[in-house]
Amino acid sequence: MNIAVVDDEEAIREQIDGFIKKRNPDFHISGFATGEGLLAAGTGFDMIFLDVQMEGMGGIEAARTLRQSGGGSREKEGAEGKADIHTGEEPGVYA
């Protein structure tokens, strides 16, 4: 599984990375400090953890941009089931 962790705080990125790697050491995790960095990396991620508020492009805007470019889907099968992308526009869909 290819996972992106997007947070402007390095300590948070490292904490999420460690949590995932502890349970799933074979997962590949890429960390980004900005939404722009995520978008520049492309769309090859199976799961994306997005911080909502960051300097520049926040997580919600990055999710919208990914969805509009065809890089994000409403539902994606993950290791433990379904993960939803939430832009705040619809109830029951999560980011």
Q: Which helices and strands appear, and what pairs or packs with what?
A:
Elements: E1 2-6, H1 10-23, E2 28-32, H2 35-41, E3 47-50, H3 59-68, E4 75-78, E5 81-84
Parallel strand pairs: 1-2, 1-3
Antiparallel strand pairs: 4-5
Helix pairs in contact: 2-3
Explain this structure:
- Helix 2 runs parallel beside helix 3.
- The chain has a single domain (2-84), classed as Rossmann fold, CATH 3.40.50.
- It is built from three helices and five strands.
- With 95 residues, the protein is α/β, with parallel strands linked by helices.
- Strands 2-1-3 form a three-stranded parallel sheet, sandwiched between helices. Strands 4-5 form a two-stranded antiparallel ribbon.
- 33% of the residues lie in helices and 23% in strands.
Descriptive terms for the model:
two-stranded antiparallel ribbon; 95 residues; 33% helix; 5 strands; alpha/beta; 3 helices; disordered C terminus; globular; 3-stranded parallel β-sheet; Rossmann fold
